[in-house]
Amino acid sequence: MEKFGGKLQLNAHVNKIIVDEETGRATGVELKNGNIIKARKAVVSNATPFDTVKMLKPDEQKLPAGVETWRSELGKLPRHGAIMHLFLAIDATGESHSVSARLDEDENTRDESREMKLN
């Protein structure tokens, strides 16, 4: 990530996603400690949609109409238990593998799939 100009900050909790009122684009984030981080190209959230929408703060800034529609429709989605995604990237060549697993709560079964080869 640093190779391409990115920066990883641990324990940097976001209070608000900052939206440019003219363009309607997310331009940065305000951390809970008050620091502001400006984005060069995009703001990406690894939080759930339910947690991300809370960080938009419509009482503090004007949001695009599409965001208000998304906020209202999001409340109608079913909520399930915890979800965990782990994305790992390495600088390598040769075979690549993808592993996915699903646990069915009702039957306590685990469904795994393992396959992928990239050339």
Summarize the entry for a quick read:
The protein is an alpha+beta fold and 119 residues long.
Describe the protein in words.
By secondary structure, this protein is α+β, with helices and mostly antiparallel strands. 13% of the residues lie in helices and 23% in strands. It starts with 13 loop residues before the first strand and ends in a 5-residue tail after the last strand. The strands form two sheets. It has a three-stranded antiparallel β-sheet, with no helix packed on it. It has helices at 49-54, 65-74; strands at residues 14-19, 26-31, 36-38, 99-104, 109-114. The protein has a domain at 2-74. The protein is globular.
Output the keywords:
119 residues; alpha+beta; 5 strands; globular; disordered C terminus
Q: What is the succession of H and E elements?
A: EEEHHEE
Distance between the termini: 23 Å
What is the overall pLDDT average?
A: 75
Residue windows where pLDDT falls under 50 for at least 5 positions: 107-119
Shape: globular
> DSSP strand (E) fraction?
15-25%
User: C-alpha Rg, in Å?
Assistant: 19 Å
Report the helical percentage.
10-25%
Instruction: Supply the helix-strand structural class.
Output: alpha+beta
**Largest β sheet strand count, sense and barrel closure:** 3 strands, antiparallel
Helical segment count: 2
Record the strand order, biggest sheet: 1-2-3
Can you count the beta strands?
5
